[in-house]
Write a sequence for this structure.
């Protein structure tokens, strides 16, 4: 969907943004007619707008009273709140700095997003006219976020492991990346934890790999949890817990969207993308509570809970990633409900080693208004992952610190010295807000991109 343009067929309608402190001053410079119309339009109420037309009734201006306070700390989403109230047509934001215009354009594009694979849109959305430089900056971000949202929103019937692999292959073709797929039969020996989790499904598991970039550049590996549906396995979820489990491949969607952005922008990295793609299903050969799996690393894993499958498939994936000695591993996963208890549903929890990487990422997220929050890899909780019969358990033996113990499980495969960032994310909007419709959501993607851009090319 084309929501941004650099050329308008006719002069675009001017969008005039006013903050609460600017409204009265602006009105004082206007004619008595416009002032009277402002009263009728209730322009002094934050969030309202006023339409102005020429003598022939053609819309020329929309004056917007931005309610930035309502959208704190994401004040830029106030621009998204305008879009649904605009008549079809082409518009242009006025009197904004280059930075603010970029945010306004991004908000405009996100507000126009719709998932239309199964239900056609009945709405004609407006378009926004921007400069060439703004278009080149924002369009790749919108494409990455749209891809992420689309993948998360697609039901498992149409996006199982193989279909997710097909998306990755298409992306590889578009960007010139290499593509490799380990099929169900390849996994049993080389990636036994991925095989064990996915073997019960009629949709066989696989491991997806993309490689792109100059081998001389810093080595970056992105890993995305690709559980295309999570029933919980034999430790089955209740019906209410399964309703949104098509989103359990949200980590995979994030790394594909992020990889698309990295490759489109040509960042100087040697990029590897790894996605273990499975469906955690139930059948006669489903893996069981009490089973012990021997991982690719040789470490044995006792399965205390088949619903803690994400960390299990990430174990072998991380081990494989380390075999090329990357400079940085970043994994994204809808890993724990405990992270949602800790930081809520609207931004990811971040774990990092060294810890400063997490704080650097958080600070960048604050600058560009894409929030994340660090949690500690507190080593005192490692005992909670102990097993009496295996090297480690996939589910802690306590009711507390679930996000931390899951991250510590991953760290046991990452090691103590490998630079690593782990995002435990929701990937889903529980209700619609301007620019953030209910359903699949990219969370922390822009912050990660900004971080990687700085990491790959330090000043």
């Amino acid at each position: 969907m084309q929501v941004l343009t650099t050329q308008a067929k006719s002069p675009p309608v001017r969008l005039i943004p006013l903050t609460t402190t600017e409204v009265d001053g602006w009105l004082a410079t206007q004619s008595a007619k416009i002032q009277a119309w402002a009263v009728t339009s209730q322009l002094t109420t934050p969030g309202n707008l006023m339409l102005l037309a020429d003598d022939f009734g053609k819309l020329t201006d929309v004056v917007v009273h931005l309610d930035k306070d309502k959208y704190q700390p994401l004040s830029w989403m106030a621009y998204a709140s305008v879009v649904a109230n605009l008549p079809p047509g082409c518009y242009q934001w006025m009197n904004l700095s280059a930075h603010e215009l970029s945010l306004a354009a991004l908000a405009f594009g996100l507000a126009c997003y719709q998932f239309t694979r199964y239900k056609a849109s009945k709405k004609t959305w407006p378009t926004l006219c921007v400069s060439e430089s703004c278009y080149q900056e924002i369009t790749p971000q919108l494409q990455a976020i749209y891809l992420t949202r689309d993948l998360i929103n697609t039901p498992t019937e149409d996006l199982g492991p193989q279909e997710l692999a097909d998306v990755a292959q298409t992306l590889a073709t578009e960007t010139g990346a290499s593509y490799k797929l380990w099929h169900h039969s390849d996994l049993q020996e080389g990636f036994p934890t991925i095989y064990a989790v996915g073997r019960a499904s009629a949709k066989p598991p696989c491991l997806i790999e993309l490689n792109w970039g100059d081998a001389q550049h810093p080595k970056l590996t992105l890993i995305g949890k690709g559980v295309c549906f999570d029933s919980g396995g034999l430790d089955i979820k209740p019906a209410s817990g399964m309703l949104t489990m098509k989103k359990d491949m949200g980590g995979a969607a994030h790394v594909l969207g992020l990889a698309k952005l990295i490759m489109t922008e040509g960042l100087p990295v040697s990029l590897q993308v790894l996605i273990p793609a499975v469906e955690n299903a139930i059948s006669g050969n489903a893996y069981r509570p009490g089973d012990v799996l021997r991982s690719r690393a040789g470490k044995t894993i006792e399965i205390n809970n088949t619903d803690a499958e994400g960390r299990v498939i990430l174990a072998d994936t991380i081990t494989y990633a380390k075999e090329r000695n990357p400079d940085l591993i970043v994994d994204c996963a809808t890993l724990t409900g405990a992270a949602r208890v800790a930081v809520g549903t609207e931004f990811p929890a971040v774990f990092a080693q060294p810890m400063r990487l997490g704080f650097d990422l958080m600070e960048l997220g604050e600058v560009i208004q894409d929030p994340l929050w660090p949690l500690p890899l507190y080593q005192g909780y490692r005992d909670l992952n102990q097993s009496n019969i295996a090297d480690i358990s996939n589910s802690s033996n306590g009711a507390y610190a679930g996000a931390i113990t899951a991250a510590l499980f991953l760290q046991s495969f990452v090691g103590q010295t490998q630079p690593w960032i782990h995002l435990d994310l929701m990937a889903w909007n529980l209700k619609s807000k301007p620019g953030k419709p209910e359903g699949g959501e990219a969370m922390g993607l822009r912050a990660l991109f900004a971080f990687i851009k700085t990491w790959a090319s330090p000043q």
User: Anything to note?
Assistant: The chain has a mean pLDDT of 96.
